[in-house]
Amino acid sequence: MRTTERVGTVSVLIRPTHGWAFPDFVELWRARELVYFLVWRDVRARYKQALLGIAWVVLRPIAMVVVFSLFFGRLLNVPSGDIPYPVFAFAGLLPWSYFSASLSRVAGSLVVNQNLLKKVYVPRLAIPIGSILSGLIDTGISFVVLIGVMLLYRIPLTPMALMALPLLALAAVTALGFGLWLGSLNVRYRDVGHLVPFLVQIWMYMTPVIYPSSLIPESLRFLLALNPMTLVVEGMRWALLGQSPATVAEPWLLAISMGIVGLVLLTGLLFFNRVEKSFADVV
Amino acid sequence: MGDVAIRVENLSKQYRIGQRTGYGMLRESFADRLHGRRTRRRIRGKMGHRDHIWALKDISFELERGGILGIIGSNGSGKSTLLKILSRITQPTSGRAEIRGRVGSLLEVGTGFHPELTGRENVYLSGNILGMRRAEIARKFDEIVEFSGVEQFIDTPVKRYSSGMAVRLGFAVAAHLEPEVLLVDEVLAVGDAAFQKKCSGKMGEEAKKGRTVLFVSHNMGAIVTLTNQCLLLESGALSRQGSTRDVVAHYLARGDQAVKSFSDLADVERFGTGRAAFTSILVAPRDENERRGDALVVGQDLEVKLTIRARAKVEDVNVAVTVYDSTGYRVIDVNSALKGCFLALEETQTAIVEFKLQHVLLKPGTYTIGLWMGRGSVEAIDGITTAARFAVSPDLSDVRHSEVFPGVYQCGFTYSMDSDGETA
């Protein structure tokens, strides 16, 4: 399907498409207002009928950090280097929460928005992209809280903290790539919906979010390095807290990890675009 | 392409059975792969060619700019599939279509509404999803709210709205879409009577502004009033196209809209002692000249002929015919006892009973006939809730207004007017 704009008139050609192709990014760019509205709807609706409303965005990460600090920091004495455990955990949980929430949201986004798929034509890619973006607002607020906690522990904020932005972008792209696969599959196989929580859980344990990668035997650390989220989490600690990562030192491991993200994203886009045309018939 | 707004060429859509009804399970798909060819061949052998159905077959038509085209057909004839393809919601299997101009499609009222958001927020959300820019919505906002008539509640979450209010707001957004080509599916079938009137008024207005409209409906009254050309779809194929009057008349005369004239009552659900039973029913409309027609037109007579067979000796039996509207409300009830007539039959004796309902002023729609016989309140001998179904069609020579109004009784009436000085 292609939309071509001529002088004054829009012409839509409808015909079956075959084969593998990337989504129409020009069309998606034209629908950027729609992406904005989808994000806005998600954020508004998420905190609408909650007594504490937007305060949850602040409370949730604090509660998580408190729980993890008690169990892992105090009871299990998980080492956190020269950084106090709560700050260590918070800096890891922040990008991780963004990633896991985004991944789950994207994976479910097409099913949740099935009314949109079945009743009106919108560039479908706007739906997963909206899901990825809608978590950024929560994350931004968490970030402010984290900075507050850092000040509390007298950890100085350096210009390196700006590196957090590309790291979050990497988390977003990773979530989008895997999410496109899972979300597209979820349209046809609802098993995916049951699978995603486990996947996220296992993935979290395979990422040094609540423990330092130095706990992992050195011979196995390269496995950790293949996980793009290791880069995000350790990179975040490095950018914010100045803690040098124990895993992601080898440039070639880094390259493989980035390669995985790129591959998953590209194939995810191709797969999404291929099955997208049957969404309305199947969902 | 000259001044053609919509051109459809050999459009077809195939659904795989099962795919259409929902999503599969991973397990089935794996099983399919694992068992490989064998299973698949067995399934195919069993189902034959039936595991694929054509929801649309080879549809071609053109609609010039500013034209209003109605699409009619019974359920499952492919009307909605056609609209979905033209709206780009689903892809055709083969063929092509070209639409010139900004397309707005209205397949439901309140597309994209989120119950937690307020009316105001939903106007923006739905408007954008339907294809309006934010600035455009802001400009038309007051007009939209005024049209909907829910000003007071515009900052209340939509989940607190009555369904009627939500529909009104949804339609108000859609009505201000101003696309060059409008695709509409049956949305006029919702909302209260006054609002429906407002909607059809708005549609008529849009049409006059030179908008190209494609309108799918079951409502013949609305089709006749709003459109001048029409397509009739039958099991996915285009069976007739031409002027609305011709196509609608043809459609109404056909099987599923016409009175099902005869049916055997051997296998229907029934209650009663069963000492006698209705064995068949014949329902036939009669026009002024006493000819049997195909479809009952408002105001015609309806003949109901019943065969009764006694299994035991029965006497003092009264027979009743009941007509229910589509919601199950009992609108007509005639009983032989009201005429002082009672039936007496010997064992195995058969009788034919005939009712003629005179001048049936039911509004166009579908109705069902129920039968009952018994001895007053003493004994129910045989009762059938749904013995036959019939449709009342609008009198095509007399449709001036869209008959989208609810209700069942079409009163005959005269009209006159006095104005100052002279008599009209």
Helix-strand pattern of chain A, N to C?
A: EEHHHHHHHHHHHH
Question: Residue-averaged pLDDT of chain B, rounded?
Answer: 81
Low-confidence stretches of chain B: 19-23, 36-48
Total helical segments of chain A: 12
What is the number of helical segments of chain B per DSSP (H or I, 4+ residues)?
A: 8
Shape of chain B: elongated
Task: Give me the secondary-structure category of chain A.
Answer: mainly alpha
Tell me the domain tally of chain A: 1
Can you give a write-up of this model?
The complex is a heterodimer of chains A (283) and B (424). By secondary structure, chain A is mostly helical. Chain A has one domain. Chain A contains twelve helices and two strands; from the N terminus they run ββαααααααααααα. Chain A has helices at residues 25-30, 32-46, 55-75, 85-112, 114-119, 126-152, 164-188, 191-205, 221-226, 228-241, 251-276, 279-282; strands at residues 2-5, 10-14. In chain A, strands 1-2 form a two-stranded antiparallel sheet. In chain A, a hairpin with a 4-residue loop joins strand 1 and strand 2 (10-14). In chain A, helix 4 packs across helix 10, helix 7 (164-188) runs antiparallel to helix 10 (228-241) and helix 7 runs parallel beside helix 11 (251-276). By secondary structure, chain B is α/β, with parallel strands linked by helices. Helix content of chain B is 24%, strand content 34%. Chain B contains eight helices and 19 strands. Chain B has helices spanning 26-47, 79-86, 119-129, 134-148, 163-175, 193-208, 220-226, 244-253; strands at residues 4-16, 52-64, 68-72, 94-100, 103-106, 181-185, 212-216, 229-234, 237-243, 262-264, 276-286, 296-297, 301-310, 314-324, 330-335, 343-345, 350-357, 365-375, 379-393. Chain B has a six-stranded mixed sheet, sandwiched between helices. In chain B, strand 6 (181-185), helix 6 (193-208) and strand 7 form a beta-alpha-beta unit. In chain B, helix 4 crosses helix 5. The radius of gyration of chain B is 26 Å and the shape is elongated. Chain B starts with a strand and ends in a 31-residue tail after the last strand. The A-B interface holds A 1, 9-17, 33-34, 37, 40-41, 44-45, 48-49, 115-122, 187-192, 277-278, 280-283 and B 15, 19-20, 22-27, 29, 84-103, 105, 107-108, 111-112, 114, 116-117, 121, 124-125, 128-130, 133-134, 157. Strand 2 of chain A pairs antiparallel with strand 4 of chain B, so a sheet runs across the interface.
